[in-house]
UniProtKB/TrEMBL annotation:
GO terms for biological process: monoatomic ion transmembrane transport. The gene is inx. Structural component of the gap junctions. Coiled coil: none annotated. It is a multi-pass membrane protein. Belongs to the pannexin family. This is Innexin. PROSITE patterns: PANNEXIN (PS51013).
Amino acid sequence: MLKVRHISYYQWVAIVLAGQAMMAWVPHVFWRVWSKRVPVLLRNAREAAVPDKETRQKAISCLVAALEEVSEASKRFRRTRGVFRQCLRGTPPTTHITFLFIFVRLLFIANNVGQIYIMRRFIGTNDTLFGLHVFQELLTGSQWEVSGLFPRVTYCDVKVRKLGQLKPASYTLQCVLPVNYFIEKVYVFLWFWFFIVAGLTVLNTIQWIFNVCVPFRRVYFIRQYLKALKQLSHTEETECARFVNNNLGCDGVFLLHAVSRISSDLIVLDVTGMLWSNYQRAKITGTEGDIVRFIESINRVSGGTV
């Protein structure tokens, strides 16, 4: 008595893999569409790392202008009502880059978990850890019959009409499925890839949230640069916290973290020093006009780069 089992994924493997590849790009496309300002700022950060002094100074000035513009936009946004109406009109707010980044990271995590779920459903198993179990079978030399997910040998019913016979004769033959050797390795690799990437993304997202969204971590990050520049005295510790939390905010600190990762700490050192000097100047004059005029002058010099 033969055990009947229907496996229908063979003809759809290439199509499903192509669909999974496009699915993996969705969070990246979402980030590129909704964070139009960030790529420009990061490009300026890369330009700031060049040896040419003039190009470097211009890129740093553009970075400072962009960060202060983000800070001013964030203040205006906090005073604006009807945020959800703005989003519904299709005009995403230019602030809250941090929350957009975290949301995209959550999309990446959901994407990887969804990819594992799609593979599990596609190959017809209820075992979420199927990749690990198949890999263990490969290491121990167990036969494929243990899991039966990727059968190497099956029985095929073949009908043959012989000369002079009206009704074809039915034969059951043993068939080899060599393609399953390849499919098995592909799906085991993809399972480990998505599982590891999902885990690393979760840990990295937690790290970003801790460094950017926790107030004392934001202040510590900026304070270490100001102390390195010797621009922060003991009497200005409270003012530094006010500068970080009320002026830079999550978005400013997030962007400085991003600049430090793609460029260098020296660039962040110069940018932080200029931001602090501008903040001190605006505080002394009792107005934010200096910051606004500084942004306008930088935009004129850079030809509207930022």
